[in-house]
Amino acid sequence: MQIQAPKGTKDVLPSESYKWQYVEEEIRKLCRSYGIYELRTPVIEHTELFARGVGDTTDIVQKEMYTFKDKGDRSITLKPEGTAGMARAFLENRLFNEAMPQKMYYLNAPVFRYEKPQAGRLREHHQFGVEFFGSASYETDAEVIILALTLLKRLGIGELTLRINSIGDSNCRKNYNNALYEYLKGHIDDMCPTCKSRLERNPMRILDCKEERCKEICKGAPRTLDYLCDSCRIHFEGLKRCLDIAGVDYIVDPDIVRGLDYYTGTVFEIVSNRIGSQGTVCGGGRYNDLIAELGGQPTPAVGFGLGLERLLMVMENNHAFIPKPDPVKVYFAAMGEQPKLISFNLVRQLRERGIYAEFDHMDRSLKAQFKYANKLGAEYTVVIGEDELVQGIAKVKSMKDGIENSVAIGELVSYFAD
Length: 418
Fold this sequence. Notes:
The protein is of the alpha+beta class. The protein contains 15 helices and 16 strands. It is 39% helix and 22% strand.
């Protein structure tokens, strides 16, 4: 029986990996210009981190996590999202003692969710995310949003819509939750079983339910914007002013609540119209209570995350340009044992000088080697056989125009390297 990759996972083949590398390099360049530095966290964490941070009434914790007991009988979870691990690392490594804000990103981080595989979202997929710790200003919210939009535009993605909302802090949330509870309890008989259990513990999670019957119920629910305290309202208005002065178009969408419990205040989504149907490419917001929830001092924070698989899909649908890797500069076509050894050494010397060079590994005929060199897109082909060794001269052919030159074998490295 042939072994296959588990359902919801996918190999990234050499013919595709250059696209990932291009996107990753563009991300790194942009983050450098913002003074954001990479933080790498483990792929496994203690399950409690996500139960406390993400929220034990969320779909992620209730339905989607890969959780197991290790040999020490500890409950371990494969990382289902990036922010909780970043917050844990911020606390554990005492980064709160450094100058604020601490601006960090994670890249190509694998995350695992047991859900039905869908377009751009697999059970193992990979994320890029940015987290700013320590600043409570609405300018920071705007900077994070503009960073995400800048990246997407640099990658050639158009037809994007920015949707923003505020879900309030823990104080004004109390009044909102009371109003929401009063509305939802009148519809409890029509809810899915999961939402029925959420009503008493966390009614706001019902707003994020994917069941159609619950979505229909929530259309008439109270809106968070109507229950904001003065502080949250001032913050949200400040964010809108920042986006206005930066010339960023946005829609205030009161239906956005995000699917994780740690969000407070600003939440946003960047939506593409080119994933077949509308789909969120990037989402994020504030999570001012997360650090305290994990045992630290109250620390404001804001960030976003996006899936790389979905990002690449949107780029393809936008016909975004992704440069292909440089082709082979020099291909050595060698015939005979000694010519192959000479070619092997010349290739080694050219590679040490940063030149992409290749030679035959498969004992092909000379004709087949030329065909292979053409397939590789080689700029030049160098022929070395027994006759060339006797004469000390190699034939150098330009594959573009077919022009041939004779070059001394001892001068081939300098011919291509200089």
